[in-house]
Specification:
44% of the residues lie in helices and 8% in strands. The chain is an alpha/beta fold and 237 residues long. The longest helix has 15 residues, at 64-78.
């Protein structure tokens, strides 16, 4: 028997020429489609029939492909058609949808969701506001910019969510962030205390309070830990 999810099982069933081959297919937990006791209703929505009389039509290995396609249509098209139409009408009141045809999907994503391009340390420093104990040429400020520029995509998203509450920079990158990225020194007594402290942020102001860590490695470790601790603190996106 071959184990898989329901959609993959449906696809596999269409490739099987014989009924006994289809009957041997199994889901990830080892159960057959029949054992799920599904009917042609949208899962989790009582009374939403996927076809006329769907409440009385059992899902079997022979019709599971039709069931999967019907669920996809209900969730991604029929179930949201009214809401999407209302959104389009409201959007038209502000900006003609026809004008968006001049943009590629990628360009539209950047305009609406912001940039996810790799970062450059010099650019970060150039557009940062450095105050209260640090200057642009301060070692810790430079090491912070270097660490951020070395982050991969997921780390960049996590840092931005930690700093701003949003996992992407606005269109225009660091230069367009408002208020600007602000770096200030966090007061600690002694280097050992600084290395034990985590950075903190004022999210509404894009403002990070950064202890004067003893090395770039310590700074990276403390930043990453603070980012991870803060991931459940804000759900703005």
């Amino acid at each position: 028997a071959e184990y898989m999810g329901l959609a993959a099982l449906a696809a596999a069933a269409t490739r099987c020429a014989h009924a006994d081959e289809r009957a041997a297919l199994r889901l990830d937990d080892g159960s057959s489609v029949d054992e799920l006791t599904l009917v042609f209703e949208l899962p989790g929505v009582a009374g939403y029939e996927l076809c006329p009389g769907g409440a009385n039509v059992p899902v079997t290995i022979e019709n599971v492909g039709l069931f999967v396609r019907a669920v996809e249509r209900a969730v991604l098209h029929d179930g949201v058609a009214a809401q999407l139409a209302a959104f389009a009408r409201g959007f038209e009141d502000v900006f003609s949808l026809s004008h968006l045809r001049a943009l590629t999907p990628g360009e539209l994503e950047i305009l609406l969701l912001g940039s996810s391009e790799p970062w450059n340390a010099d650019e970060i420093i150039a557009h940062a506001r450095v105050e209260h104990g640090y200057e642009r040429q301060s070692r810790v400020v430079r090491e912070l910019a270097d660490v951020l520029a070395e982050f991969d995509l997921e780390q960049r998203r996590a840092f931005l969510k930690f700093l701003t509450g949003c996992p992407r920079l606005p269109f225009g990158g660091w230069a367009a962030l408002e208020p600007p990225f602000t770096i200030v020194r966090s007061a600690t007594k002694g280097r050992a205390n600084a290395d034990a402290a985590l950075p903190s942020v004022a999210t509404c102001q894009n403002y990070i309070k950064l202890p004067e860590y003893s090395s770039k490695d310590v700074l990276r470790e403390r930043i990453v830990k603070a980012m991870l601790y803060a991931q459940e603190g804000f759900s703005l996106s």
